[in-house]
Amino acid sequence: MADDVKETQKSSVQVPAEVIAERREIVKHEKSLEKLGAFEIAFQMLKLAKNNEKQNIFLDAGRGNPNWIQTISRLAFARIVEFGVHESEQTMHQRDLAGYTQLMGISVRFHHFLSPEENEVDQFLLDALNYCEERFGFNSDSFVKELVDGAIGNDYPVPSRVLAHTETILNAYLASTLYHHVDGTKLALKTQVFPTEGGTAAIAYIFNSLKENKLIHRGDRVIINTPIFTPYLSIPQLNDYELQRINLNSREEDHWQLAPEAIGKLNDSSVKVLMLVNPSNPGAMALSSQSLDAIKAAVTKNPDLMIITDDVYGTFAEQFESVYAVVPNNTLLVYSYSKLFGATGWRIGVIAAHEDNVFDKLIAKLPDNQKAELNKRYGHIALHPENMKFIDRMVADSRSIGLYHTAGLSTPQQIMEVLFSLAHLLNESVDGADQDHYIAEAKSIVDTRYQLLNKGLGINGFNSPHNTEYYSLIDIYELARQYYGTEFANWLRDNFTQLDFLYKLSKRYGTVLMNGVGFGSKPGILRVSEANLPDEAYSMIASDIRGLMASYHTRWMKEVPHQA
User: Is residue 534 classed as helix, strand or coil in its secondary structure?
Assistant: First the structure.
């Protein structure tokens, strides 16, 4: 916000003292908020919104937590747990104490336990077993025991990185949902996965192991495709890493695709890492084939480029293609089940890496003294540490090496990933249709809300297969221009930041949005999540935004002289 004195001088109308006092209060509040991240600012706005002046219904469109869940997999998980308890009681049973499960014949006993003719959940489980036996050639007893022991959590994750059958299923899911223009089955066979506590844990593990394995050093250059999920902006600059961050600054007018001048930065061999969210957050746009081709071309010029792609929103775009599918040897793929399946509380995600990757090659090319240091580090857990792949080093680093024997995502979380994955694979295989009805329904939900918001604001949305519609970015200055003209828009930009708009929207109307600048967007941008509120809320949000804009306009008319 501009200085009060300067603003008063712009007008020939005397600004009331109470207005100046209010502005000073808001400026003081904004100054304190500027130190916070976008999510922390939204939390502060929540307090104001719950006791808003108009006593409106409190609407928080800040976070991307979906307000729907996928049911069949959760119910199937409960049935597996129930069977697992009965199985355990066969070897030991004293009141609420039971024993262990037995491998021999467990699949037959599971079939007897299921009642598919009476229960669609049991039919789903039976279909899943048949599907895995036919497609992957699983041994029935081994697979059922992995499901059962995993769900009841009666043992450590073994192998530590991922359960055996689980890895095959997760790879099939990733291939089906994230690779559409390559041979996904072939790529899946060469991909290794590491299930993690959501996508955020995956990113934390990756950066930690990049540092520990001498692949990044203080001062190294990392390119981030901005705007991007707020925490990803801060990670490179933490004291742990102190990397030099370069923003690619994708633009709305380019529909958040990579601009040619941005791609040129990737050709520089001094750039060590490219980090992106695809489809983007907050832009909600998947990379086009042209952007993907440009990244592929950049890798030919900068073959040691390490790429980290977070593809959590991939299933909301049509025919989505991951950067991993285009340049798998240079890319670590991060995926989370949280958004599609309404599972943010489960904290389940995965890191995927090609078996032949640049990370392993760069470790092999390290100076002898650094390789000796790493061999000493991992020699506590491996006879031949020099042969440890980077993905397995991440698993070890996640438990500070010494606790490697207890590493790995909890087995119940891994089984939940399996069930979500199988639900998709089974839906996709019904009648040979290349369509998952659940994904279609989730897309329909966000599309309805996206359209309602745009209609309420009186603006046109962007109709593109690359647009996930999971988020909307609203430029308050552009809205001001469309509603009331350029002169008013300039006055609003000169005198009020988007934080002022957010503050008033929360305090007066009870509506909370996110500060887009915190994601690396230009000033004036607000983010709306189309995931976490009822459909009708989005028309209300649009009405609140228009109402607040009208109040700014009324103020402008009073404070600024206008020609008759």
Answer: coil
